[in-house]
Amino acid sequence: MTNKVYQLFEYVYLAMAAFAIYLVITEWETDRNRAYLFIFFAVIAVFMFFFKRRFRKNIEKRRRGED
Predict the structure, then answer these.
(1) Over 11-58, what HEC string results?
(2) Each residue of 39-61: pLDDT tens digit?
(3) Least buried of 17, 23, 38, 60, by fewest C-beta within 10 Å?
């Protein structure tokens, strides 16, 4: 159960990145500084997706090793 929750949160980070990219596209012409901020958020969200994924896979590997 907890493994599925971790996996769900991984994809929430991707959804946040997609939303931030959407905001970059809509804000680019009106407020470029705000668009840069959302680019930063998108990069951080993608980084967190891969970080959390690696962390979850390491936990799974440890659990399989202990069984």
Answers:
(1) HHHHHHHHHHHHHHHHHCCCCHHHHHHHHHHHHHHHHHHHHHHHHHHH
(2) 999 999 999 999 999 999 998 89
(3) 60
**What is the 8-class DSSP label of residue 9?**
H
Q: Which domain holds residue 46?
A: 2-66
Produce one character per residue of 43-66: b if its CB has 16 or more CB atoms within 10 Å, e if not: eebbebbeebeeebeeeeeeeeee
How many distinct structural domains can be found in the chain? 1
What are the C-alpha distances in Å from 2 to residues 9, 12, 33, 52?
A: 11, 15, 39, 13
Q: Output the pLDDT for position 3.
A: 77
Please state the rounded mean pLDDT for residues 22-37. Answer: 96
